[in-house]
Amino acid sequence: MTYAPSSTDNYCYRHPDRQSFVLCQRCGRTICAQCQTQAAVGVHCPECVREARGSMPRVKPQSVTRVRTMVSSGAPVATYAIIAVSVLLWLVETVSGNTLSNAMAFYTPLTVSQPWRLITTLFVHGSIFHVGFNMWSVYVFGSMLERQLGRGRFLALYFISGIGGSVAVSLIAPGVAAIGASGAIFGLLGAFFVIERHMGGRGVQILVLVALNLAIGFIIPGVAWQAHVGGVIVGAIIGLIYMRTRHRSMRFIQIAAIVALGILLVAAALVRSAALIG
Q1: Which InterPro entries does its entry note (predicted)?
Q2: Contact between 252 and 275 (Cβ < 8 Å)
Q3: Is residue 259 in some structural domain?
Q4: Residues 243 and 160 in one domain
């Protein structure tokens, strides 16, 4: 019987009490079975495995890469996000009944205690037709305006117009509970018209579209036409602010004017709510 000669080289460098005759393919050190990691050729020791992993290029998940590519390429990410959240919440609503509508709808007497409803109401809808038509409108006009104005200005236009729609409901029909993004969408239409006029366009088509949609709101029962009127007025005001403060030197004035308008609308909604419950 033949025995292998006893030597420190024949013992695992991490476990000196374990004899082995297997060498790491990269560094040549002796490693026992517990320390071996199978490689394409031979085995590697733990240190060589860590070193190899550390030197490998880190590959980001494709989903993260796609989102960053969209953001850097100027894609209307904010528009897509609004559509995705609205559709997702509508799907949840169809499963849970009216749970979301009851928790997120705008209702004037609740504004003082739950002011977030001024925003959350924009994301809940009553039917597949409601969410489908509204999100189609957001896609068409939101995509254009977001690319033209930039994400920050577009989001300010969308949400402040939506608040303007809710304020109009609170002033004209305070007993009505309203849901949907119509106020914000009419704000996009109002701003689009003003921007088109300032850029040299006639804006007749968009004016006809606004008139037709306002008329539909008056004719179809159950539609909160007050939000449409409030949204289009506030959207037109924001569009005018953007056009009159386009120069880079007026950026601070533009931001201050938009913030002031938003604060004024929220204050009006709170005062109206407090007057009703007080």
Answers
A1: Peptidase_S54_rhomboid_dom, Rhomboid-like_sf, Rhomboid_protease_S54
A2: no
A3: yes
A4: yes
pTM: 0.73
Q: What is the pLDDT of residues 203-252, one digit of tens each?
A: 777 888 888 877 877 777 778 889 999 999 999 999 999 999 988 899 99
Domain of residue 162, CATH code: 1.20.1540.10
Rg of the chain over Cα atoms, rounded to whole angstroms, equals 31
If you ran DSSP here, which 8-state letter would residue 4 be given? P
Residue 248: exposure state from Cβ atoms within 10 A (0-12, 13-18, ≥19): exposed
The number of residues making up the chain comes to: 278
Burial class (CB in 10 A: 0-12, 13-18, 19+), 29: middle
Active site residue 228: yes
Judge if 113 and 206 occupy the same domain.
Answer: yes
182 as an active site residue: the answer is yes
- Rounded distance between C-alpha atoms, residue 85 and residue 172, angstroms: 29
**Domain hosting residue 184, numbered range:** 96-277
- Write down the catalytic residue from 101, 170, 182, 273: 182
24 within a domain of the structure (yes/no): yes
The string over 154-163, giving b where at least 16 C-beta atoms fall within 10 Å of a residue's C-beta and e elsewhere, is bbbbbbbbbb
CA-to-CA separations, 37 to 32, 44, 50, 164, in angstroms, rounded? 10, 5, 11, 64
Q: Read out DSSP for 38-51? A: E-SSSEE-HHHHHH
| Alpha carbons 244 and 257: distance in angstroms, whole number | 11
Interval 67-111: pLDDT, tens: 455 555 568 999 999 999 999 999 998 888 778 888 999 999 999
List the catalytic residue out of 198, 228, 247, 273: 228
Is 69 inside any structural domain?
no
